[in-house]
Every structure is written in structure tokens, then in C-alpha cells.
């Protein structure tokens, strides 16, 4: 006989979602379904009560249109914040003050260094750990690459994040039937202010997955300078940065062209005088497989991966370990510096675009 839902959830970690959009539906719910012996979805909140109800019904969770209702729900052990960027900081702080066991916040977890510092202070005061959903940092392929990189961490002269993807909707539809997907907005790329906004969205929405990896090679970015910043049609960016004596190349292109014309690709590279690392990630929203890392040194290439799970699942595995007391949360100082690095690139890109237009 089927196991009653209450019995199936006994002893598992209850998750509450603030925001029930495509990221919740197509990324986190499938990830948690694979970890059903560890987690269950207890509560789904969205400002659109109909969306909250529809998504919650899929997983047998309580729906609401109120953050307070979710935070007051004793069945919620971990809060996952999947709302628009501008709401992240106050929601993270509220979840910490509610005394939850952990918080997973989609990137970026704040939109200013001041907000990030306030989050870190509240997390330290309440003892509630925070995970930021830059999924590549939790991918076992990247973790194997980082462990094997050796002197390349100090010697790399060029770092490259290259992304070629279809619009998110294509992979979202592979994962689930998305309820209430936001309509894309038209962008006037002749307007420098619009270009600056597109670059900000691209850096904080796409590049930010790889920027913590870049920063592993560039711990000191006090001299950061953006040398080039362009928006790419229909959506994408080309950004060239110098920081810490290293060149950082960030490129992305999202196109709805026929898939037969090109292959989705997401790679991170670190190139040094005597060795090079290439990490090939699965596209965003794809739930199968980890990254594959290839480290070339001394004329030989060592390959790590693919492993049995990806970074999305890795985030949740890390949270399970934190709740169980077997793993530690990332240091707040690292999360703040990762955000400061991303914001410094955003500011430099904006300044570059507006100066060029003046």
C-alpha cells in the first residue's frame, strides 16, 4: 500500500518557498524530488495566491500569499528564497530572525554590499546559516577541479566564463509545465541606460554563477577595472575585466535560433603558463549530470566527472549536512566578497557604457 504522506514526511526536513516562479518549479522542486528521503516541501508562498495554490498542490504543501504565514509555519525548517532580487535581503533577514534551521537564497542574496553586511550580522546574531544559490560552487565537477588545481590558483593569467544557451523557457519546459511564466520585455539597445541595465541583469543573473569560481583565482580585486562592456542581441553580454593582475573574460549569448544551428555550452576556464583547467557545466535548468573538469599540465590531461549529481542537488545536499551538523555553511565573509566582486563588475560595466555614450 502507498505510504501515507505524513509518514513519508516524518523525520525529513520541511522546506518553505518564498516565490513560486520558474526557478522554484523547474529547478528546486525536481531537485528535492530526488532527495525525497531527506526533504519534503511544506509550504509554498507567492504574491499570486493562485500560483501558490497550484504549485503547492503539486507537492502536497500548504499555500499562502504571505511571507509571515510561511515563517510562522512550524513545518518549515528551511526557507528557500526565490523571489525577485530586490526582495532577497529583507526576506533573508526575516527568515533568520524567525529562527529557521537554514536559508537558501537565490543569487544575488543582496543588491548592495551594505545589505550583504547586514545579512551577515543577522546570520551571526541568530546562528542561522545561509547558502547562496550559485549552483556551480556546489557542483562536484567544480569541487574536484578546485581541489586538483594546485599552483594554477596562483599562476592563472586568464579566466574565462563562456555561456551559450537558448532562452530559459526551453529548458524550463523540459523540467516541468511552468505556471505563470513572466513575459520577456523588449529592450532598446540603442539606449545606454538600457544597455547598462541589460549588463547588470546578465552579470547578476548569469555570470554570477561563475564569478565565485573566478574569485577563487582573484582573491584581491581592489584594482578591478572593466575594459570592455557590451550588450549582445537578442540577449547577452561581452565584458572584459582586469583584476589582481589577471584578465577575466565574461561572455554570454541566449538565442531562440533553431537548436540544430548551435549547441548549448557553458564552460569555465583558467589558463596559466604551464597548466590549464576547463570545466564544462550542464546548461542551467538541466537536471542531469554534473560538470566535467579537465586539468592539463605537463602534457597530460586528467579528467574528473561526470558525477552522480549536479550543483542544484549539491546545494540541497549541503543544506542537509548543515542541518544535520555534519557540514558547515560557507563563511559569511566569502559570500560578501563574492557579491562585492559581482557588484564591482556591474558598476564598472555601467560606467564604461555611460562614458562611451557621453
From TrEMBL:
The keyword Chaperone does not apply. Keywords: Oxidoreductase. Pfam families: GFO_IDH_MocA. Residues 14-133 form the Gfo/Idh/MocA-like oxidoreductase N-terminal domain. Transmembrane segments: none annotated. InterPro entries: Gfo/Idh/MocA-like_OxRdtase_N, Gfo/Idh/MocA_oxidrdct_glycsds, NAD(P)-bd_dom_sf. It comes from the Bacteria. GO terms for molecular function: nucleotide binding; oxidoreductase activity. This is Oxidoreductase.
Amino acid at each position: 500500500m502507498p505510504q501515507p504522506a505524513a509518514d513519508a514526511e516524518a523525520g525529513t526536513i520541511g522546506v518553505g518557498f518564498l516565490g513560486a516562479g520558474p526557478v522554484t518549479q523547474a529547478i528546486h522542486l525536481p531537485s528535492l524530488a530526488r532527495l525525497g528521503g531527506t526533504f519534503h516541501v511544506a509550504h509554498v508562498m507567492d504574491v499570486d495566491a493562485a500560483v501558490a495554490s497550484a504549485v503547492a498542490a503539486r507537492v502536497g504543501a500548504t499555500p499562502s500569499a504571505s511571507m509571515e504565514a510561511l515563517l510562522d509555519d512550524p513545518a518549515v525548517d528551511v526557507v528557500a528564497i526565490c523571489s525577485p532580487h530586490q526582495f532577497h535581503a529583507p526576506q533573508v533577514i526575516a527568515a533568520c530572525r524567525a529562527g529557521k534551521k537554514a536559508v537558501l537564497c537565490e543569487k544575488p542574496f543582496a543588491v548592495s554590499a551594505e545589505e550583504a553586511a547586514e545579512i551577515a550580522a543577522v546570520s551571526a546574531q541568530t546562528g542561522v546559516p545561509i547558502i547562496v544559490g550559485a549552483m556551480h560552487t556546489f557542483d562536484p565537477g567544480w569541487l574536484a577541479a578546485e581541489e586538483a588545481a594546485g599552483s594554477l590558483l596562483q599562476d592563472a593569467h586568464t579566466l574565462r566564463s563562456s555561456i551559450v544557451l537558448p532562452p530559459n523557457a526551453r529548458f524550463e519546459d523540459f523540467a516541468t509545465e511552468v505556471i505563470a511564466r513572466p513575459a520577456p520585455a523588449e529592450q532598446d539597445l540603442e539606449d545606454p541606460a538600457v544597455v547598462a541595465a541589460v549588463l547588470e541583469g546578465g552579470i547578476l543573473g548569469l555570470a554570477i554563477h561563475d564569478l565565485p569560481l573566478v574569485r577563487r583565482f582573484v582573491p584581491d580585486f581592489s584594482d578591478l577595472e572593466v575594459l570592455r562592456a557590451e550588450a549582445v542581441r537578442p540577449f547577452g553580454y561581452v565584458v572584459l575585466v582586469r583584476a589582481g593582475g589577471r584578465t577575466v573574460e565574461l561572455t554570454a549569448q541566449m538565442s531562440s535560433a533553431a537548436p540544430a544551428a548551435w549547441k548549448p555550452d557553458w564552460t569555465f576556464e583558467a589558463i596559466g603558463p604551464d597548466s590549464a583547467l576547463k570545466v564544462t557545466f550542464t546548461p542551467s535548468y538541466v537536471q542531469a549530470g554534473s560538470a566535467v573538469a579537465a586539468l592539463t599540465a605537463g602534457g597530460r590531461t586528467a579528467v574528473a566527472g561526470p558525477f552522480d549529481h549536479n550543483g542544484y542537488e549539491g546545494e540541497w545536499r549541503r543544506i542537509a549536512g548543515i542541518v544535520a551538523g555534519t557540514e558547515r555553511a560557507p563563511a559569511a565573509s566569502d559570500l560578501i566578497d563574492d557579491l562585492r566582486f559581482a557588484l564591482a563588475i556591474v558598476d564598472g560595466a555601467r560606467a564604461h557604457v555611460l562614458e562611451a555614450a557621453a
